[in-house]
């Protein structure tokens, strides 16, 4: 099963993967070699710490490779603009009651970062907006009740 991911999300994972393979791996290998030279491995804290770090780095490399192989990378800037909310679009919505505006980018689950205005495509607010157009009202059920938002603008950034 393929999971949607923005082109920016894929690039960030590829950069992290490159860093782990070209910088972290060699550093850890060197640290393990250095610690081995200190002798008795049973009570060698440096050796055990380096081996533990190596395990974490290798696990992260596997995780990233798995995510990238399962990703369907979508570059929203190559998709013709229709005014509809789709994966990857940046959407400005206004609370119908308060007129308070907020802008979100709809991204893959792994990319979601609310502080950066990135919400998961599986979040209730994104699910309510997908397929709707500028000017439409969406109803979102939140823990504090039902909130209505008007879709003010849809952008392919």
UniProtKB/TrEMBL annotation:
**All residue ranges annotated as the Transcription elongation factor GreA/GreB C-terminal domain in the record:** 83-155
What is the superkingdom listed in this entry's lineage? Answer: Bacteria
| Keyword entries, A-Z | DNA-binding, Elongation factor, Protein biosynthesis, Transcription, Transcription regulation
An example of a Pfam family matching this protein is GreA_GreB
Question: Residues in domain Transcription elongation factor GreA/GreB N-terminal?
Answer: 4-73
Which GO molecular function annotation, any one, does this entry have?
Answer: translation elongation factor activity
Task: Establish whether keyword Transcription regulation is in the entry.
Answer: yes
State the family named in the UniProt similarity comment for this chain. Answer: Belongs to the GreA/GreB family.
- Protein's job: Necessary for efficient RNA polymerase transcription elongation past template-encoded arresting sites. The arresting sites in DNA have the property of trapping a certain fraction of elongating RNA polymerases that pass through, resulting in locked ternary complexes. Cleavage of the nascent transcript by cleavage factors such as GreA or GreB allows the resumption of elongation from the new 3'terminus. GreA releases sequences of 2 to 3 nucleotides.
User: Which NCBIfam families does the record associate with it?
Assistant: greA, PRK00226.1-2, PRK00226.1-4, PRK00226.1-5
Q: What is this protein called?
A: Transcription elongation factor GreA
For this protein's source organism, the top of the classification is:
Bacteria, Pseudomonadati, Pseudomonadota, Gammaproteobacteria, Pseudomonadales
């Amino acid at each position: 099963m393929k999971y949607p991911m923005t082109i920016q999300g894929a690039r960030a994972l590829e950069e992290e993967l490159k860093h782990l393979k070209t910088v972290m791996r060699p550093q850890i290998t060197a640290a393990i070699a250095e610690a081995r030279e200190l002798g008795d491995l049973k009570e060698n804290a440096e050796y055990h710490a380096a081996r533990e770090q190596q395990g974490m780095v290798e696990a992260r490399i596997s995780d990233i490779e798995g995510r990238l192989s399962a990703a369907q990378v979508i570059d929203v800037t190559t998709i013709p603009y229709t005014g509809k909310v789709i994966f990857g679009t940046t959407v400005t919505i206004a609370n119908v009651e308060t007129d308070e505006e907020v802008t979100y980018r709809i991204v893959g689950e792994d990319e979601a970062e609310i502080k950066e205005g990135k919400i998961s495509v599986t979040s209730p607010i994104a699910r309510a907006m997908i397929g709707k157009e500028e000017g439409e009202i969406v109803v979102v059920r939140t823990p504090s009740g039902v909130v209505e938002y008007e879709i003010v603008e849809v952008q392919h950034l």
